[in-house]
Amino acid sequence: MRISGLTGQAQRAGIEARHTPAARLKHNRSRLSPQQSELGWSRAGGNGQTRRVFGVLIRIDSVTKRYPDGTVAVDRLSLEIPDRAITVLVGPSGCGKTTTLRMINRMVEPSEGTIWIDGQDSRRQPVNTLRRSMGYVIQNAGLFQHRTIVDNIATVPRLLGWSKDRARSRARELMERVGLDASLARRYPYQLSGGQQQRVGVARALAADPPVLLMDEPFSAVDPVVRKGLQDELLRIQDELGKTIVFVTHDIDEAVKLGTMVAVLRTGGRLAQYAPPADLLSNPADAFVEDFLGADRGIRRLSFFSAAGLDLLTAPIVAVDATAEQIARAAQGAPYLLVTGIDGKPLGWSEPGALTAGSVDTGRLLSYGRPFVAGEDSLRSALDCAVLSPAGWAVAVDGEGRATGVISQTAIAEAIRGAHEAAPGVGGTTGAGEPKALR
Amino acid sequence: MNVLHFITSFFTDGAHWSGYDGIPTRLLEHLQYSLEALGLAALIGLPVGLVTGHYGKGGNTLTLIATAARALPTFGLLVLIVIIAGFGMLPVMIPLVVLAVPPILVTTYEAVRSVDRSPVDAARGIGMSETRILLQAELPVALPLILGGLRSAAIQIVSTATIAAYVGLGGLGRYIVDGLYQHDYEKVVGGATLVAAMALTTLGIFWALGRVAVSPGVRRAG
Ligand SMILES: Nc1ncnc2c1ncn2[C@@H]1O[C@H](COP(=O)(O)OP(=O)(O)OP(=O)(O)O)[C@@H](O)[C@H]1O
Ligand SMILES: [Mg+2]
User: Fold this and answer.
1) What stretches pass through the bilayer (chain B) (predicted)?
2) Whose CA is nearest to atom 22 of ligand 1?
3) Cβ–Cβ contacts within 10 Å for residue A430, how many?
4) 3-state DSSP call for residue A217?
5) How many structural domains are present in chain A?
6) One domain, residues A280 and A311
7) On chain B, which terminus has fewer CB atoms closer than 10 Å, C or N?
8) B162 domain-assigned
9) pTM of this prediction?
């Protein structure tokens, strides 16, 4: 089985990570769409060694970078970057993230050590050939301001000798893929917003369909809302294309959200921890990592547990037109009742005594805050909803927004404890635990 | 008698419009000297400026050479070369080229240096060769400034090419030199007017060149 092979490799890569191979396997798979996982299995089965789908594509082998002025930016760093996954390099400013990334495409040459790309020493091939096989995205997009959007994206195909027409039609294809309107094709970069420019940067990097994508703080210059959009887009593109992405950021939330594996570097370019994000949050290797993760890592870790396993109660839910009998029955054992409309959508909370049978006065209901989607959201969302709700109860809804149940803070807290016990290392393998960042 | 009167009588005199001392001949001669000098200066200044600008090295040396070249008196240089090499095109061309190279060289160097580093970094990162980076990422963006350098060099050349007349060559300088010698102020003013008109035309040509050669993305972004 190829997959367990990866687990072994990843295990070796994660020097200081402590968790079970099974958890890691689950994590790596969780980022891939079902279709791709299937592809991975069948290809591995059918072609054997010819096409490595879940192998390690980039291996950084005790690499040191000493700049001419004596600065040691990276110190004996070893890292195995898995194929078809997003590996995030994160750490404080000046810790050597950019240097590490740029050593992969040899924009910076290592002083010592070797970087292996798909089993081959990266120095073996001509530098420009190497770079053309790796998309490169930087902070301010770095678009060519004298070229139109479509020609910016067509740059690498043109370098590879494609005809102008073919390169342009490929570029238009990519505009669609990264969510850019076709009407922007003939514009120049100055006519685009920062977020749009960044999308063009991503499209340009993807244009020649390189197996590897190197991204250096690509989303840090845009506002939080646009950044979230770009992150979601990247995850979607990654699900569709299955690139090997090395992503640099100094934002731990971004790292946790995007990373299949996260490498935390400390100043001086030394590896502090290399682990899947859920492990990082549950088991920081030392005080430095813990400090870097921030104060609310416990809460953030809940993003990795699905709310699907929660025991939702349906009894305390009544419709606006409920009879006195129905209200009385629902009120047994629940301090508050959730009132829903005829369509089943939640309207608000009320004490049972304040409800008038037959037709509830909706104006007097307590706000229910924000509901969570039972099948999709994480325990973090569920807890958040409960905290926000004046009644202290969270409302679960289905995809259409109809109330499917309610749950108290106390019950969520119990589920959290249960999930932690079932999965001391990672998100766990049973019940609520799915080690993939949910909403 | 005012200047305007000189100008009208110079240009309405039919004798000034034909023959070896006629306006068309002198204009063409002047144009020829100017183009040759500008071409030579660009041939030296552009490549050196582009390459040093691209690698970001040698800026201090360039500035030093440019300052030194600017300090050379054009007329003194002309006399010196006549003494060394005798009459001919050389004593005209060398001072003109010496005059024109510094603005071309220095602005080209500065123009390439001032190109935003991030597209250049991206260009390198996606595997462009250094030559391609220079020609396809830096030059198009630096072009407006480079054209500016060429333009000021061209204007200086056009107005200074009058020195050709001192060494017995033609050009619009003939009218000025001869006119001064003959106390024919009509001729002097006429010649000066033609030089000024040619300088203005040069400005116009460079403006048009900028419209055609510079990408709208650069023109409007800047
Ligand atoms: N060309 C260079 N010459 C000398 N020192 C350098 C050079 N480039 C980077 N450094 C130094 O190497 C160290 C690591 O730099 P690097 O750019 O890799 O950090 P980083 O993690 O990307 O930081 P940031 O988050 O601020 O981008 C820093 O101390 C930096 O000052
Ligand atoms: Mg950096």
Assistant:
1) 37-56, 77-101, 153-176, 188-209
2) A98
3) 11
4) coil
5) 2
6) no
7) N
8) yes
9) 0.79
